[in-house]
Write a sequence for this structure.
């Protein structure tokens, strides 16, 4: 009786070893199919990408494009591989997780963090976290992919990247231009940014603190009562149309800035949650704003310098009149 039990236990143990060994081999084979797909995608090698798909594979990508059948998938991938903006960037593949709900059925989950991809207009995408779920079926001794679903992780806060960028722009205005909280400039502006403004200030790289310095000049001499009119966002760009209402209080502010209202359109390029590029457009045509407000700082200073000789001559003339009277 004991011998029979030992024999049965030996058989069961052997089966477990064989099963475990077979499953280990299957895992390695499935991992290799995923590796071949990844290499084929990077090399734009259609045959290598399609090699381990079943003829009737059901395939859906992260943008909702669905194909049924290997040939239909080939046609779609030929189009995708010819789109430079799609194929730009780098793939960073993670180790897949593989399970076997049935002996002849396997599930493989994997993640690819794709960096440097672009939108159709050439603007950069944020890093994409792409999930793959492959369903394998063992057919004639070979593991073939019968279903492949690709999805993308999105902002958990429920807002799109564009909405998040608009929020960054709104907070920038709120703290630097609508309220005097200019110390928060580093929350919104990258350590260095590029600015495109009127005059010679075009394509200039500036440190982030320059935005605080500019805002402080105005706050030190007066007050703001401004508002955002509307915003438009696309990709990593945010355009904000706002009305700047400034009241100059100090003598210098009255001379240099004056009081008035002017519509402004700013375009921000935002990367990794910070403003990295600024385009500044002011609608000066139908305003009566002092020259410095509309970018005439150099002209105003030039006029003041030009008036100095006239002032000196006027004072000398008065002195000469007094001397002649005596």
């Amino acid at each position: 009786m004991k011998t029979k039990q030992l024999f049965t236990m030996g058989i069961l143990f052997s089966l477990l070893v064989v099963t475990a060994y077979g499953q280990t081999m299957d895992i390695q084979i499935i991992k290799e199919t995923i590796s071949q797909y990844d290499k084929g995608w990077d090399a734009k090698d259609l045959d290598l990408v399609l090699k381990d798909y079943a003829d009737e594979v059901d395939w859906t990508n992260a943008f909702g494009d669905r194909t049924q059948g290997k040939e239909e998938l080939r046609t779609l991938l030929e189009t995708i591989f010819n789109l430079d903006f799609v194929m730009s960037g780098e793939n960073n593949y993670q180790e897949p997780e593989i399970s076997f709900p049935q002996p002849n059925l396997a599930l493989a989950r994997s993640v690819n963090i794709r960096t440097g991809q672009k939108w159709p207009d050439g603007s950069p995408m944020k890093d994409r976290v792409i999930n793959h779920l492959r369903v394998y079926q063992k057919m004639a001794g070979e593991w073939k992919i019968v279903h492949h679903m690709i999805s993308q992780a999105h902002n958990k806060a429920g807002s799109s990247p564009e909405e998040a960028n608009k929020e960054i722009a709104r907070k920038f205005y709120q703290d630097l231009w609508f309220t005097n909280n200019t110390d928060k400039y580093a929350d919104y502006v990258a350590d260095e940014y590029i600015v495109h403004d009127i005059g010679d200030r075009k394509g200039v790289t500036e440190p982030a603190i320059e935005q605080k310095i500019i805002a402080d000049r105005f706050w030190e001499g007066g007050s703001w009562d401004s508002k955002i009119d509307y915003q438009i966002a696309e990709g990593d760009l945010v355009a904000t149309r706002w009305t700047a209402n400034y009241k100059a209080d100090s003598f210098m502010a009255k001379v240099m800035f004056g009081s008035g209202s002017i519509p402004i359109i700013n375009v921000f390029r935002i990367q990794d949650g910070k403003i990295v590029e600024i385009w500044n457009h002011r609608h000066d045509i139908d305003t009566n704003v002092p020259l410095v407000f509309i970018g005439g700082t150099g002209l105003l200073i030039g006029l003041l310098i030009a008036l100095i000789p006239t002032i000196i001559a006027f004072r000398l003339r008065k002195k000469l009149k007094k001397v002649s009277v005596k």
